[in-house]
Amino acid sequence: MGNLVEMEELVKIEVQGEIGHIIMNRPKKLNALSKELVEQVIQSLDQLSQNDAVKAIILSGNGNAFCAGGDIESMNSLSDANEIVKWIDIASGLSKMLMNAEKYVIAAVHGYAAGAGFSIALAADFIVADEQAKFALSFTNIGLIPDLGLIKSLTERVSPSIAKEWISSGKVLTSKEAHAHGIINRISTGSVVEEAVRFAEFIVKGPSISNKYVKYLVNHVGELHQETAFAQENMIQAMLLQTQDHKEGIAAFLEKREARFTGK
C-alpha cells in the first residue's frame, strides 16, 4: 500500500491518494496503548492533518486486534499520583486529537476494541468494523471507570440507563449489536481497511472545507443554546457561500456533472 514510513515501528503512516492511513503497530501487545504509542499516533494525526492532499484519515491496528486498551504493564509502572495524572492526560489527548482534528477520521476496527481501544474508536468520526469485531467495556473488570472520553461519547449514542448497564456489567458488544445501536457505521465482511476506504469515498469527493465545519458543529452542538447554534450556522454559511467550492457546486449542478471540489 504505497510508501510506508515507520516511526520506531510503533506507528505506520501511509498516504494513498487522498486518504491518510495511521496503523498502530504493536501486534504482539494487541496494540495496547503505551505512552510511546499514544504519542506517536498523536504526532501522526497532526502530520496528516497538515497535509493538504489528505481529505480523510483511517486509523487501524496491525495484527489480531484494533486495540486491546491501555497497556497494563505501563500503567503498573506508574509510581505516584503525579505520574498517573500525567499518563491519563497524555492518553486523553489522543481522544481529543481525534475529535478536534479538522479532517474526518474513520476507525477501522477488527478483533477487539477493548477498554481504551473502544474509547478511541468512539472518538473517531465514523467506525467501520469487521463482522467478527468485539467492543468491550472492560473497565469494571479491573475496578475502573471508562476514560479517554468514553462515557460522554457512549451516552451521546445510547440512553444513560443503557450506558450505565453496559459499563457496570463489562458488556462486550458484537458488531451487529453495535450497528443496531448506531455506534458503528458499516460492517465489513472482507478487509475492514478496504471497506473503510470505500466508506471514505463520499468524504474524498466532498467539499473538505464544508466537512470541516460539519464536524465542528455536530461535535459541539450539545454545548450550544439554540440561538447560539443558529448564529454559528449563519456565520459559517455566510463564509461558505463565498468559497470556490460553493461556486463549483452550483456550476456542476447547472451543468449536470459531478462537482470537483478543491477545498478553497
From TrEMBL:
Keyword S-adenosyl-L-methionine: no
Keywords (A to Z) from UniProt: Lyase
InterPro entries noted in UniProt: ClpP/crotonase-like_dom_sf (IPR029045), Enoyl-CoA_hyd/isom_CS (IPR018376), Enoyl-CoA_hydra/iso (IPR001753), Enoyl-CoA_hydra_C (IPR014748)
Gene3D superfamilies, per the entry: 2-enoyl-CoA Hydratase, Chain A, domain 1 (3.90.226.10), Lyase 2-enoyl-coa Hydratase, Chain A, domain 2 (1.10.12.10)
CDD domains in alphabetical order: crotonase-like
Family note: Belongs to the enoyl-CoA hydratase/isomerase family.
Name of the protein: Enoyl-CoA hydratase/isomerase family protein
Organism: Sporosarcina soli
Lineage: Bacteria, Bacillati, Bacillota, Bacilli, Bacillales
